[in-house]
Amino acid sequence: MAAGRATNAAEPGAAQDAGHAVEHVALTLADQLPMLLILVPLVAAPLIVLLGSRRLAWPLAYGAATASFVMAVFLLMRVIGGEVISYHIGGWAPPLGIEYRVDSANAFVLFLVTGIATVVLPYARTSVAAEVDGQHGTLFYAMFLLCFTGLLGVVITGDAFNVFVFLEISSLSTYVLIAAGAVRDRRALTAAYDYLIMGTIGATFFVIGLGLLYMATGTLNMADIAERIADQTGNRTVRAAFAFIVVGVGLKAAIYPLHLWLPNAYTYAPSAVTAFLAATATKVAIYVLMRFMFSVFQPLYLVEVKTLEFIIIPLALLAMFAASVIAIFQTDLKRLLAYSSLAQIGYMLLGIGFLSETGLTAAIAHLFNHGITKAALFMGVGALVLRFGNSYCDGVAGAGRTMPWTSAAMVIGGLSLIGVPGTAGFISKWVLVQGALEAGWWPVAMLIVLSSLLAVVYVWRMIETLYLQPAPERAAAGEAPLSMLVPMWLMALACIWFGLNTELTLGASLSAAKGFMAGSPGLILAGH
Amino acid sequence: MRHHLILRVVTKLLVGAIILFALYVQFHGDFSPGGGFQAGVIMAVAFIIYGVVFSLRQAQRVFPPWLVHKLLALGVLIYAFTGLVSMALGYEYLNYGAFTPHHPEHGQHWGILIVELGVGVTVTGVMVAIYYAFAARPPTISDKDW
């Protein structure tokens, strides 16, 4: 849209007054992609509020998400080979100006977040109409887009403080989205409040960490910080900053002992919100953790401070087992899946903990694969909620007979969660085991396999509930509407597709892992 | 507040002056301390003090809640569209130099003014919306609401 006019508009001005201003080469639409990706949902959100039309809200939200998705695909295709795009907002070069920087790591996460939003929104239409107060329907989509914008912004920006700003945008809207579940269950309000307190503590820790970094370096651009702290490894301010940032982001990512907000938030939020958040929010936090650990503090620093060996890996192993065991004893399917998410976050942390290219590849691939798996599963549970009004194991027993398609999609998602060969979950766990063996930690490899057996137990519990238990005597509920089945199956089929064809996931993950292991690429002053 | 004659008269006198001061801070923001945030808060104070003294109902007649909600969104859109225009002209987002390529300083002057206007509108809206939300809350919570 802008490209055609852009190329024409700037040239006459530059030609007339070449003496005054430096000749400006007009940016094309392709150059503007990193900004437009954020801007489209950011503009659509207030537009929904301004128009205030219940009919226009959903199409606008869906259009914005789809546009972002298309742009994310283009960006991913451009950077997957290892190129780095730098966009200078307002034309101010970093480190003074805010920079958006796209490399294969964040382009891949952008692809995941936009993809999930594009799939979840069609699903949300029916689900949200049933679970959220009708008069808040319009505002719900505005909030959803704001949350979406925030997540995208966190991922794309190359400015440390900008991460905090976008983190707050996404967090604040997430609290509202979770609280919107109060129509179905009042406990959503306390869940949202818990998350608000925990999330704010996390954000505060994060910003204190940034403040300390700023104190030590006098800059906020990530690449610039990286350059300036490289020779300050013994500096206590920098160490404190590292600790604050890891704990702060860890709260957002729900690293095991910092996870208390997550189960309730996922259980009581509207189903569409749970599907979206489970597939994106914690993944984005994991990405931020990796970005700060590897691009700002750099791998050598991690070797020196030993945080990974003594804190991250033990906690990851703890999460894999403790959360899985807790999941086995849940009586609510949503809650069961929420605890399984915590366990899966353990795998990603373990991948990071190996501090090797293979480990990081596994972490990033699992981030994506688990995202689509959980989206499929939570959308399945959301369909059960629509028909049965709850997600308790007793309440939805025997749903396999009345809702065969929904249940089948959940089985596929469940298999991917366990890591059965032929599903997406298998690929990332395989690479993770490889990473463990590569490091010579075969006991850890055994533990990965053992914890997968725990996943078998809780997924079996889900399957048993759906298929083997007799349905309670009451009017049989029908299958979920097509608008929910199609997105659900898209994700379920994606679980199989990415389990068979690993070119995209492993290719992008490997490229991202290489980028991370290489440390900071330094400042990019030229560029857009 | 019906019997507080002094408060009512002084408020009537002050509201106009407060709004004028808000506009001053708003449009002088690029030369001196001030700008959209401060101006927005001062502007909102005019409505809030009116609401406190003359009752919420009166304030909402002057500045109805639906208008407040629209203004919230409008301010953000003013900001975002300023940037979109500079993008359409072939420059980076929010590169105000795009408006007057032969003399970027002029463009920057105009750009910051428009953007600050957007900030001012949104901040006014947010402050008043927060006041309305708190003031319009029912005094006690019924059992059903728990």
Automatic annotation (TrEMBL), chain A:
<feature type="transmembrane region" description="Helical">
    <location>
        <begin position="105"/>
        <end position="124"/>
    </location>
</feature>
<dbReference type="InterPro" id="IPR003918">
    <property type="entry name" value="NADH_UbQ_OxRdtase"/>
</dbReference>
<keyword id="KW-1133">Transmembrane helix</keyword>
<comment type="similarity">
    <text>Belongs to the CPA3 antiporters (TC 2.A.63) subunit D family.</text>
</comment>
<dbReference type="InterPro" id="IPR001750">
    <property type="entry name" value="ND/Mrp_TM"/>
</dbReference>
<feature type="transmembrane region" description="Helical">
    <location>
        <begin position="237"/>
        <end position="256"/>
    </location>
</feature>
<dbReference type="Pfam" id="PF00361">
    <property type="entry name" value="Proton_antipo_M"/>
</dbReference>
<feature type="transmembrane region" description="Helical">
    <location>
        <begin position="195"/>
        <end position="217"/>
    </location>
</feature>
<dbReference type="GO" id="GO:0005886">
    <property type="term" value="C:plasma membrane"/>
</dbReference>
<feature type="transmembrane region" description="Helical">
    <location>
        <begin position="310"/>
        <end position="329"/>
    </location>
</feature>
<dbReference type="GO" id="GO:0042773">
    <property type="term" value="P:ATP synthesis coupled electron transport"/>
</dbReference>
<keyword id="KW-0472">Membrane</keyword>
<feature type="transmembrane region" description="Helical">
    <location>
        <begin position="136"/>
        <end position="157"/>
    </location>
</feature>
<keyword id="KW-0812">Transmembrane</keyword>
<comment type="function">
    <text>NDH-1 shuttles electrons from NADH, via FMN and iron-sulfur (Fe-S) centers, to quinones in the respiratory chain. The immediate electron acceptor for the enzyme in this species is believed to be ubiquinone. Couples the redox reaction to proton translocation (for every two electrons transferred, four hydrogen ions are translocated across the cytoplasmic membrane), and thus conserves the redox energy in a proton gradient.</text>
</comment>
<keyword id="KW-1003">Cell membrane</keyword>
<feature type="transmembrane region" description="Helical">
    <location>
        <begin position="268"/>
        <end position="290"/>
    </location>
</feature>
<dbReference type="InterPro" id="IPR050586">
    <property type="entry name" value="CPA3_Na-H_Antiporter_D"/>
</dbReference>
<feature type="transmembrane region" description="Helical">
    <location>
        <begin position="60"/>
        <end position="85"/>
    </location>
</feature>
<feature type="domain" description="NADH:quinone oxidoreductase/Mrp antiporter transmembrane">
    <location>
        <begin position="159"/>
        <end position="454"/>
    </location>
</feature>
<dbReference type="GO" id="GO:0008137">
    <property type="term" value="F:NADH dehydrogenase (ubiquinone) activity"/>
</dbReference>
<feature type="transmembrane region" description="Helical">
    <location>
        <begin position="439"/>
        <end position="460"/>
    </location>
</feature>
UniProtKB/TrEMBL annotation, chain B:
<dbReference type="InterPro" id="IPR050622">
    <property type="entry name" value="CPA3_antiporter_subunitB"/>
</dbReference>
<dbReference type="GO" id="GO:0005886">
    <property type="term" value="C:plasma membrane"/>
</dbReference>
<dbReference type="InterPro" id="IPR007182">
    <property type="entry name" value="MnhB"/>
</dbReference>
<feature type="transmembrane region" description="Helical">
    <location>
        <begin position="5"/>
        <end position="25"/>
    </location>
</feature>
<keyword id="KW-0472">Membrane</keyword>
<keyword id="KW-1133">Transmembrane helix</keyword>
<dbReference type="Pfam" id="PF04039">
    <property type="entry name" value="MnhB"/>
</dbReference>
<feature type="transmembrane region" description="Helical">
    <location>
        <begin position="37"/>
        <end position="56"/>
    </location>
</feature>
<keyword id="KW-1003">Cell membrane</keyword>
<feature type="transmembrane region" description="Helical">
    <location>
        <begin position="110"/>
        <end position="134"/>
    </location>
</feature>
<feature type="domain" description="Na+/H+ antiporter MnhB subunit-related protein">
    <location>
        <begin position="6"/>
        <end position="128"/>
    </location>
</feature>
<protein>
    <submittedName>
        <fullName>Na(+)/H(+) antiporter subunit B</fullName>
    </submittedName>
</protein>
<keyword id="KW-0812">Transmembrane</keyword>
<comment type="similarity">
    <text>Belongs to the CPA3 antiporters (TC 2.A.63) subunit B family.</text>
</comment>
<feature type="transmembrane region" description="Helical">
    <location>
        <begin position="68"/>
        <end position="90"/>
    </location>
</feature>
